[in-house]
Amino acid sequence: MRNIDIELTTLSSTHHVEMNPSDAGFQDRYVVQEIIKEMAKNRPIDTKGKKRFKVLVLNEVDKLSREAQHSLRRTMEKYSASCRLILCCNSSSKVTEAIRSRCLNIRINAPREDQIVKVLEFIAKKENLQLPAGFAARVAEKSNRSLRRAILSFETCRVQQYPFTINQVISPMDWEEYVSEIVSDIMKEQSPKRLFQVRGKLYELLIKCIPPEILLKRLLHDLLGKLDAELKHEVCHWAAYYEHRMRLGQKAIFHLEAFIAKFMSIYKAFLIATFG
Amino acid sequence: MSLWNNCLIYGVVSFGFHAFNASPTADDAVSLRRSAIVGPWRFAMGKRDAVVVLSSDDGGDEGEGEGEGALSSSRSRSKPAAKPHLARSEPRRAKKPRVSGSRSRSSSSRQSSIVDEFQFLEEDFNEVFTGAKVTTGFGRSTAKESWVDKYKPCTFEELAVHKKKVEEVKSWFEERLITSKDNLGDHVLVITGPAGVGKSATIYVVASHLGATLCEWNTPTPTVWKEYVHNSNTGQYVSKLDEFEAFVERTRKYGLISQSSAGESKSSAILLIDDLPMTHGNVARRRLQNCLHLLVQSTHIPTAILITDYGRVDSADREARFLEELHLSLESAGARKIAFNPITSNAIKRILSKICRQEKRNVASEQIDLIAKASGGDIRHAITALQFFCLKVDWPSFSSSSPTTVYDLHFGRDETISLFHALGKFLHNKRESVSPSGKDPHPMQEKFMRLPFKMDAPEKVLSQAHGQARPIADFLHENVLDFLDEEAVDDASAVLSYLGDADVLLHSFHGAVARNYEAEGVVQSAAASIAVRGVLFGNSHPLPPRWHSIRKPKLWQSEKFSLHNKDEMLRQRFMVYNGVSSIDTSVIATEYMPACKWLQHRLQAHEVMMLSTEIEDGISLDDREVKTSGDEIEEW
Q1: Fewest C-beta in 10 Å: which of A93, A220, B315, B349?
Q2: Looking at beta carbons, which residues of chain B come within 8 Å of A257?
Q3: Contact indicator for B212, B177 with CB cutoff of 8 Å
Q4: Closest Cβ opposite residue B497 in set A190, A192, A258
Q5: CB-based contact B309:B192 (threshold 8 Å)
């Protein structure tokens, strides 16, 4: 028997515990098991002396490892009498079938743009802000249907310039700007040297904990905006290819860079073919 | 042999004791042992001719050594009563291990049965006598001995070390021994070099040539704690470093006292520190360094310190760095440094064939050649290999007339190369200028054709460098772009793709392949192979060789930072959001942090605190919290 020390913050009340087991990294499965067992042991008792249950909220279930999900399934069944589980995730495709079939699946859609606009208008009213017509819509449009993002950029705009004007610049996130910089770099020159410079920038982004998947997605997004229609299909294919390998592999930078190198190679061949 | 050696040394020590006590008893033996603990040094002409000092009044040359040897052996025979006790304490002082079999037996016998012990002693006695005979016969008669000891160089001609180096050492000692010794400042010579290049042998020969007595420090053999407790019920444990320090202190203050008891003139003594005590940790190392520093500054006896460079190829090793430091500090204290190089294979060949002649063995010259090559400049190893080779006449690989390589020998020091050397080979990608003529049975497409390597198979180079797949891949990834042609983006793409393959392979066994070490090993070597060969194949337009430095992967640093940042975020998340714990680090990194930085920036610029009424309560808190980590990131 070995002892494992895992530090994990949980949020709890008498009726519930909320936590993010994937923070524990590869040891997540012990966390899931232990917490649930612990909860089963200390069941709350209500005023009538009846045994009640506790609610366990697990976030980011899709980020749990396969082993952890497996053990979650077993514990769920065993202790179902003493606790109720609420599992949250971004994508159910990464939650195993076994768990999905044991849960009631509720899908929450991202808010539509008009819904976002409504929220923004509500905030403006509460904050006593003059909101010119169409500005909220532009913020909502840029937000990629993420309410959080919309509110954040709304606040940013408020700090940048108030009173609002209709065609006020809605600044993108700094890392997004950085990515577009990378994109224009690689469109300008295709050489190992340039690739090396780009590597430095990628490292910087990775150090800031921008997830490599999101990075790659953004890269592709920006590239597609600038590319010739002819190339789009091929570039998408390679992006998907390297994204898959990034998930299989360990060091994201290898695959990010491989994608950029591949793109450079394709783009250079295309330039030579078109302009000679 | 070492046990025998020590027996004789005890003869020497007990000699002094006889002056006080005519008949040594068991008690004496105990006290003798203690004295041995206090001062484990021995006087010797050569390592093995420990006896010589015993009565060689005028710093005996070889000829006298013979007689002395005989005398001492008779001496030890004359008092068999004291023998058992002496023998018991011997292993403490053994320098080289005896044949390992008998050694392990000696330790086991101590614990188990007395019968065994007696047998062991008997064996020892035999060895003492045969050993003594060997000494008298100029060390060249019994076949029992190892050739390394048997053919220990006695004259300058027999030394395989380069003449210049020998001359350098000799003249240094001459200067100090023959001319007046006090006006010269430095009295310490540091000899460095890999193992088996004849550092000690040179000193012995020089000493005997100059008629000087060698006083030698050898690190005592490590004590088994239990054994120590068993042997001495009193007294406290003295660490090897303490012993060494005490020894150095004594020599510095009083010179070699025992010298005068032997009736020597002080002028002809050389202090040899062959083996520095093992040190671990910075404190011990600093002590050793200080101690040696003092010795260098204040000693008046010509002193030689021998330092063996253990594979200095990997500079990351702390031990190696310490040695480096030690060299510097000794030199700064005024010690003279002479570095010995590995012995050339010609010199080794010369020695080996001479031994063959003397042993009347028939060894073909190409076999000697092979052994010399396999030894990697280590003559001790080469001689042992030769002896081993002569034990068995019909080596399978030699019976046929087929050409043999170093690797057909079943022995030999495996040559190693440093990681950077190997990386250089892979990155420079040197190839033959012409493809081999002759029809290839499986012709390949033009674009897959590559010229043959100018090096061994990559896997072999890898194994020589003891390359682990992960660091190899990381290093290659970091450096490969520098070695690509300016225009060759296709190559870069191919290389990086292969490195990605290696990465995927390396990750695959992380969880999926349950602890199956064999499979893991295969995956590891496959991944390394793919990474290396991918780099070699992908780089289809190798640049002409020029100097490039190889960088440490920046990846490691960046991983460390990003982990740290992530921890930071996780830690702040709960403080900041007060219950809204569901936010993922990626969201914090991609959305909150940039936004907050903006807000923060603006706030500082305008010096207005208009945001007291925040849109989201969380964010205002967030501002202050994230500020610190944001700044940190900026610094990086």
Answers
A1: A93
A2: 477, 496
A3: yes
A4: A258
A5: yes
Q: Does B535 touch chain A (CB under 8 A)?
A: no
- The tokens for B347 are 């010199």
DSSP symbol at B552: P
B-chain residues within 8 Å CB-CB of A190? 489
**pLDDT tens string B532-579:** 999 888 888 877 777 778 888 888 888 888 888 887 777 776 666 554
Residues A44-56 have a mean pLDDT of 73
The mean pLDDT value for B327-337 works out to 80
Return the structure tokens found at B199. Answer: 């550092």
* Chain A contact set for B614 (CB, 8 A): 155
Distance from CA of B142 to the nearest CA of A (A): 58
Comparing CB atoms, the residue among B492, B558, B602 nearest residue A206 is B558
The residues, ordered by sequence, that sit 6+ positions from A193 with a Cβ below 8 Å of its Cβ are: B481, B486
Residues of B in contact with A217 (CB under 8 A): none
Question: CA-to-CA distance for A97 and B109, rounded, in angstroms?
Answer: 66
pLDDT band at A35 (very low <50, low <70, confident <90, very high): confident
Q: Note whether B64 and B56 are within 8 A (CB).
A: yes
Q: Positive or negative, the Cα torsion across B151, B153, B155, B160?
A: positive
DSSP run (H or E) holding B54: none
Strand arrangement of the beta sheet that strand A83-87 belongs to: A10-12, A16-19, A54-58, A83-87
How many contacts does A have with B, using Cβ atoms within 8 A?
Answer: 180
Query: What per-residue confidence (pLDDT) applies to B514?
Result: 53
B631 touches chain A (CB under 8 A): no
Q: Please list the residues that pair with B270 across neighbouring strands.
A: B214
Amino acid at B522: V
- Predicted interface score ipTM higher than 0.90: no
Percent of all residues in chain B with a pLDDT value above 70, rounded to a whole number: 54
Which pLDDT score, from 0 to 100, does residue B612 have?
Answer: 36
Over residues A93-129, the pLDDT tens digits come to 888 888 888 888 888 888 998 899 999 999 999 988 8
Q: pLDDT tens digit string along B461-513?
A: 888 777 788 888 899 999 888 888 888 888 899 999 999 999 988 887 655 54
Whether B119 contacts B31, CB under 8 Å: no
Q: Which residue has the higher pLDDT, B259 or A147?
A: A147
H or E, element range at B296: helix B281-298
Strands of the sheet with B269-273, listed across from one edge: B41-44, B213-217, B269-273, B303-308, B188-193, B336-339
Asked if B370 contacts B403 with a C-beta cutoff of 8 angstroms, the reply is no
**A229-243, B10-24, B175-189, B221-235: lowest mean pLDDT where?**
B10-24
Q: And the tokens for A274?
A: 């078109």
CATH of B156-339, one of 2.30.38.10, 3.90.1150.10, 3.40.50.300, 2.60.40.420: 3.40.50.300
CB-based contact, B508 to chain A, within 8 Å: yes
Residue B214: alpha-carbon gap to chain centroid: 25
pLDDT at A89: 86
Q: Distance (Å, rounded) from C-alpha A131 to C-alpha A125?
A: 9
- Test B497 with A23 for CB contact under 8 angstroms: no
Question: Cβ B595–A207 below 8 Å, yes or no?
Answer: no
DSSP B588: I
Give the nearest partner residue to A250 out of B503, B565, B591, using CB atoms: B503
Return the domain boundaries, chain B: 2-142, 156-339, 345-408, 419-434+445-552, 558-635
